[in-house]
Amino acid sequence: MNARIWKPNVTVAAVVERDGRFLLVEEETDQGLRFNQPAGHLDEGESLVNACIREALEETAHHVRPTALVGVYQWPRPARDITYLRFAFACEVTGEEVDRALDTGIVAARWLTIDDVRATRERHRSPLILQCIEDYLAGRRFPLDLIRHYD
After folding, report:
1. Residue 24 CB contacts under 8 Å (≥ 6 apart), including other chains
2. How far separated are the first and last CA of the chain, in Å rounded?
3. Pfam families per the record (predicted)?
4. What is the C-alpha separation between 38 and 58, in angstroms, rounded?
């Protein structure tokens, strides 16, 4: 028997608001330029919180500090035979490396208002982008100690 082993792709995302604007990345994808939160895959041995901090820095050159878990999102993509399991964190900016090169494929970090985010839905990499921000704006916050990481 040739059984396929299924596992979700675990990702993290930083929901960063400053002065009424949200930090997104504009990135090259196989569907053209798309918007996303600073986000990416969990690396082996890495905690979810540390993955969020790393991805935000690599994709935006901003240092962030996660303050809460906004939510956990499951997004199946049957056409690609992939399911994403996203952990979205509310984060605050603690610094910026202005001259830092961004990850391959990232065109720029952009600060968008919620109206801008809503108006660019057709350019979102996934439906999770707006959902995470809407949940953040609705006040969804769970303590970080909800997540346990064991080395």
Report:
1. 35, 36, 37, 38, 109, 110, 111, 112, 117, 129
2. 35
3. NUDIX
4. 9
With beta carbons less than 8 A apart as the criterion, state whether 94 and 117 touch.
no
CB atoms within 10 A of CB 70: 28
- Among residues 127, 108, 107, the alpha carbon closest in space to that of 117 is found at 127
Contact 67, 49 (CB under 8 A): no
Helix (H) or strand (E) segment spanning residue 119 = helix 114-119
Contacts of 11 (CB under 8 A, 6+ apart): 39, 40, 41, 42, 84, 85, 86, 87
Structure tokens of 90?
A: 């509310």
Model-level pTM greater than 0.85? yes
| List of residues 6+ apart from 80 with CB closer than 8 A | none
CB neighbours (10 Å) of residue 100? 11
Sequential pLDDT tens for the chain (151 residues): 556 778 899 999 999 999 999 999 999 999 999 999 999 999 999 999 999 999 999 999 999 999 999 999 999 987 778 899 999 999 999 999 999 999 999 999 999 999 999 999 999 999 999 999 999 999 999 999 999 988 7
